[in-house]
User: What shape does this take?
Amino acid sequence: MFTTRFLNMIAGNAFQTQTTPAFPAALYIGLSTTAPDVDGTGYTEPSATGTAYARVRLDGLSVPNDGFVENENIIAFEESLSSWGTVTHYLVFDAETDGNLLVFEPLEEARSVEARTVLMFKPGEVKLGVANEQA
Assistant: This one.
C-alpha cells in the first residue's frame, strides 16, 4: 500500500505538476510490529538500541513487469541481538534513518524475531508496484 505522500510524489513527478519532493535516490526496507496508516504513521519499528535492528538498502530490484518490481536477491537484516517482537509488515522509506514512509505491505505470515535470528526475504518475496484499479 502506498502512503498519501508517495502517491502525491508519483502523480506530481509523473505529470510534472509538482516535482518537489523528487523521487528518492535510494530506498530502504524496514520492519514493523504494527499496521501502518496511509498517512505514513502508525508503524512501530523494532528499537535500534542494543538489538542490531537497522533498515536495509533496497537494491537489486527487477525491471518492471506489468507495473510491478520484486527483489531479485535475498534481502537480509543483521542478526538480532535481542527480540524484535512479532513483525507483521515490511516498510519502504526514503532514508536509512528517520525519513518518510512511502510503501508498506503485510507479511504473508507474521514472524517472531527472537535473539540470534536473521530475518530475510527470499527473491520474489518483496513486490512493489502500481496497478489499474479494478471496478
Summary: The longest strand covers residues 101-113. The radius of gyration is 15 Å. The chain has one helix and eight strands. Residues 26-121 form one domain.
